[in-house]
Amino acid sequence: MTANFDSAFLTEMRRDLLRFARLQLRDNALAEDTVQEAIAGALAGGREFAGRSALKTWVFAILRNKIVDAIRERSRSINVSALSVDEEAMDETFDGLFKPNAHWQPESRPADWGDPEAALNQEQFWAVFETCLEHLPANTARVFMMREFLEFDTDEVCAELKISTSNCHVILHRARTGLRRCLEKNWFASGGASC
Amino acid sequence: MLTCKEVTHLLSEGQDRKLTVAERVRLEMHLLICSGCSNFGRQMNFLRSACRRYVDRRSRGHDRAD
Question: What is the pLDDT at residue A4?
């Protein structure tokens, strides 16, 4: 079964999966274990794979479930809604974008990103994107990635992590506004893509 | 009239739940006259597609022909 897949491919696949798991779990050892289990699970299943991408898709599907399990496990001991200093700092930065009447400060008004979809084809954009994700505080990132990467409904995210719906919305808003600012600063404004 | 800050919350929540008709009407009225919030709204949509594509790239390996 494994004979079809050379070690260079498996190494590369492992690296990609590990990055994905680390981003969400924020724990290297746990990420390594999770990826290891996912790969072992996929190869041990006795399934035939039509090719590399079929194998990778399958391992990835297993990995997602394992990440969810790990998050679920962890949410028993972690209070996801607790605000760290990082989250408080994000809220302050966000509030600073507005005038006292809660409309945009002229210099903070979101700019036109032009054709942002074009960035999706650029390798460098993904490096920036990943760095911005890494900069999100752990709990904020966890909620955001469950919603956007693991594609849970918001209700499911709240239920899994035992947070209220309104708190869920606050956390997702914080994550999105933080990512938006980070991408604007590090890609769209500096790349000359802003108008 | 909604403030820009309130609009950012509605635009984010619009990614997670169906907004009520009343919310949508107030939102649209604001967006008509506010370019900052309109840009913000497009950026929220872009974030969603970037996340989808990110997962796609990670799960399927390298870029197919673009």
Answer: 59
Query: Could you report the predicted ipTM of this complex, rounded to two decimals?
Result: 0.91
Amino acid making up residue A50? A
Interface contact A104-B36, CB threshold 8 A: yes
CA B22 to chain A, closest CA, distance in angstroms equals 19
Give the pair of three-digit tokens for residue A57.
């898709």
The tens digit of pLDDT for each residue in A132-184 reads 999 999 889 989 999 999 989 999 998 888 889 999 999 999 999 999 999 99
B15-52 confidence digits (pLDDT tens):
999 999 999 999 999 999 999 999 999 999 999 999 99
Residue A179 to residue B47, Cβ atoms within 8 A: yes
**A85-188 CATH fold:** Arc Repressor Mutant, subunit A (1.10.10)
Q: Tell me the C-alpha distance between A164 and B50, whole Å.
A: 27
Q: Is residue B64 included in any domain, yes or no? A: no
Q: Which of B46, B48, B66 to mutate to test the interface with A (most CBs of A within 10 A)?
A: B46
The DSSP secondary structure of A159-177, one letter per residue, reads HHHT--HHHHHHHHHHHHH
Interface list for B 1-20 with A (CB within 8 A):
3-6, 8-9, 12-13, 15-17
Domain count, chain B: 1
**What is d(CA A133, CA A94) in angstroms, rounded to the nearest whole number?**
17
| A180·B40 Cβ contact <8 A | yes
